[in-house]
Amino acid sequence: MEYILPFLPEKIKNLPIHMDFDGQKRAERYFQIIIILFAVVGFVWGYITQQFSQTLYILFAGVTVSALLTLIPWSIYRRKPLQWQAVLDQASKGASQQGSANMTQLKTKKKKLKD
Amino acid sequence: MNSFTSRLNSLFAFTLSVMAALTFCCFLTTVFNDHIRPVELNVAKVLVKNVPDYSADRERSDLGLITFDLSTDLQPIFNWNVKQLFLYLTAEYKTSEHALNQVVLWDKIVERGDNTILDLKNAHTKYYFWDFGNGLKGNSNVTLTLSWNVIPNAGTLPKVQGSGSHKIVFPDQYTSGRI
């Protein structure tokens, strides 16, 4: 994978592929609900037709649906981004990114400890 | 759940757990089935010979020669948790030397989807009806029964004896020569 990365155009590299914490939780919940729903329907249908293979086929259909819905990091799983703490006043002005702000915060804390 | 592969992993693990639960539930729906069916048995030819058993001790032993009729319908046994039946025809009797003798004379595998109606007329046994000694001549209480082993998708492997049997009365005289 790493070998291909430098050759990819920026547009593709910048596509968001993460899920936020809430999104991860929902993704797990979604596939559990979908699979159990298909399993229950498949069990009833398999019992009616007296074919256990039918039950499993319906279960696999549910797995496919839930894989499409939850394996791919759709944008619905990025609705609640983490709210980082505000930048402390000692932090450098240039750090507009919240992540780097946090890092500076840590650095300043370390400095303080050294002093 | 933070990456594609970790989600794939949990999806796969969860699917396997659900499959195991479904299989167990399938077993639970059939756990109380007794699998018993009526079987009609009859014998046409009953002979007994006294010949050396070269497969055992080379002593002269009793060899029963029978042809049998068998009729049964096993369709109701099959459900979504039965893959196949292993049928076997057993002769059970008592001799002065051995309190319990059981000889399997014939067997058959009936798979799901096969014809489940068995109607044999004048069928020959698949295996020799050897007695250990000379207990067949004049034996009037040899019971013929059909039993089966139920092979399920999941669960126990029940051994069931069909209801219905036939009593064979062997003649008092040995048959000699070719038949």
From TrEMBL, chain A:
InterPro entries: Spc1/SPCS1. Its main location: endoplasmic reticulum. The chain crosses the membrane at residues 30-48, 54-77. Pfam families: SPC12. Residues 92-115 are annotated as: Disordered. Keywords: Endoplasmic reticulum, Membrane, Transmembrane, Transmembrane helix. GO terms for biological process: protein targeting to ER; signal peptide processing. It is a multi-pass membrane protein. GO terms for cellular component: signal peptidase complex. It is found in: Endoplasmic reticulum membrane. Residues 93-105 have a biased composition (Polar residues). Component of the signal peptidase complex (SPC) which catalyzes the cleavage of N-terminal signal sequences from nascent proteins as they are translocated into the lumen of the endoplasmic reticulum. Dispensable for SPC enzymatic activity. Belongs to the SPCS1 family. This is Signal peptidase complex subunit 1. It comes from Biomphalaria glabrata (Bloodfluke planorb).
UniProtKB/TrEMBL annotation, chain B:
Keywords: Endoplasmic reticulum, Membrane, Signal-anchor, Transmembrane, Transmembrane helix. InterPro entries: SPC3. It is found in: Endoplasmic reticulum membrane. It comes from the Eukaryota. GO terms for biological process: protein targeting to ER; signal peptide processing. Pfam families: SPC22. One of its GO terms (cellular component) is signal peptidase complex. It is a single-pass type II membrane protein. The keyword Cell wall biogenesis/degradation does not apply. Belongs to the SPCS3 family. Essential component of the signal peptidase complex (SPC) which catalyzes the cleavage of N-terminal signal sequences from nascent proteins as they are translocated into the lumen of the endoplasmic reticulum. Essential for the SPC catalytic activity, possibly by stabilizing and positioning the active center of the complex close to the lumenal surface. This is Signal peptidase complex subunit 3. It comes from Biomphalaria glabrata (Bloodfluke planorb).
